[in-house]
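WARN no homologs supplied; continuing
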Amino acid sequence: MEHKEVSVLIGGRAGEGISSAGQVIAQMLGHQGYRVHMYYDYPSLIKGGHNFAIIRGADQKIGAVRNTVDFLLALNQETVDLHREKLTSEGVLVFRSDAANAEGVAVPVKRLLEEEGAPAVMGNSAILGAFVRAAGMDWEVAETVLRKAIPKQIDTNLRIARRAYDEAEVKTRISPLGAKALPVVTGNEAIGLGLIQSGLGLYCGYPMSPTSNLLHFLVSHGTELRIRVIQPESETAAILMALGCAYAGIRAAVGTSGGGFCLMVEALSLAGIAELPVLVVLGQRTGPSTGLATYTAQADLQFALGAGQADFPRLITAPGDADELMAWAAACLDLTWKYQLPAILLSDKTLCEGMYSLDTSQMRHLQIDLELADKNVSPYTRYSLTESGISPLRFPPASGEIIRVNSHVHDPDGITTENEETTKAMADKRMRKMRGLAEEIEAMDPVHLGGDVDASTALLCWGSNKGICEELGTKMGLRVIQPVVLWPFPERSFARVCKGVERMFTVECNESGQLARLVRQFGYASEDVILKYNGRPFFVDELEALLGRAIS
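OK structure emitted
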């Protein structure tokens, strides 16, 4: 059976390396020229509970998985019992013969480990080796990927994988596509690469799914890239540390999720009035409160729009895949420094921890003129009233100058005031920056248009639903509209891509249709709202069926 698309599910208990094994499979498919997406499902447990990853490869860019799979790799009986029905009619089951009872490709993991004198953690190498053989792939695929993926005791791991490969039999064939192999990265890694590209100096984060792995990624490369990565005692400390670094001239970003962002909101207001640049990576998960700590949602848009008291300018973006995450993470960091305001990059568990093929050759490079207000003006006033609203930005120590920041209403010199005219003048100054930012955003093509671009029926989506809507829009003849920038809302760009739309379906992972509510403020009615809010993303076959019923 020849494939131009293939799906693999690997499952077992927490602590058995399911995520790592899934990433290896994703790399193997990428090595064969497939464009890859991986979804990882796990409970909020350190050990125990059922974990699984679905890895899908196709001959085109994708961003979602299906409910059906071609290969089921089972490390225990529970995985067989829970997922056997997902196998297609010609699907292949590969399982540990010492941990499960089934029909398929039996892998004697326990025997292989004992004969090689290897620890239990190497059992996944046997499963992966047997999978490569059952899938009809060459041994070179397994060896190449495993050498890159396994940093320790690679020779023993390769021996175990090779023995399992030799003992298995070919059941089908995943043929190379002949396309260029692309790197496969998580969304968190793509964000990190974008931040690095834009000159990140300090990253602060208190571990919280789903952005914890961004902290780990930057720590692992911090020394070579001269980036300071700090885990302080709380989310409040993280954002205050970032604001302190901004005052000193160091580009800083913080990462968190909904509950942590709640603790950062007061400091976000401080950034607003003190005009300190900071980028918050907000990885959404199911709420309220702790909610489902390891599952996904798109439910923090309205929170991000209104976080903090009173009005102050902010930038909110919601990239939809690895390419956009990398490009817009860099752009957000540049823009927050140019306009001296807080920025929020909205991601979610599906994006942060999912894996994607990263095609930098097709990535948009967002050019931003970083020229700030005149730095050489003297005497220096931190909050000078300028036509653009952007004041000169200097950092201590500055000979002969005092550089103030202030959380109170202040005058241009940064000194607290309660004068009514000054209060209004400083508020007007801050909002002039917002107008400038809005104009610059409009020139950056902030709304993605895809699918059948001439169709009169459109899918409106944001964030991680981009990939699935793009795929189904192309297949079903639907226009796809995805605003990447959500605030300041790009009214002109949105109107342009909506021209000719007669009916609009909004696809979101929240209970209330938060994007539909936002666009309604600008005169766009989207009464057909398709929502999912059980912590899981839309699956391709699931959303296709929902759209089919809604359109008919």
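The two ends are 34 Å apart (CA to CA).
OK
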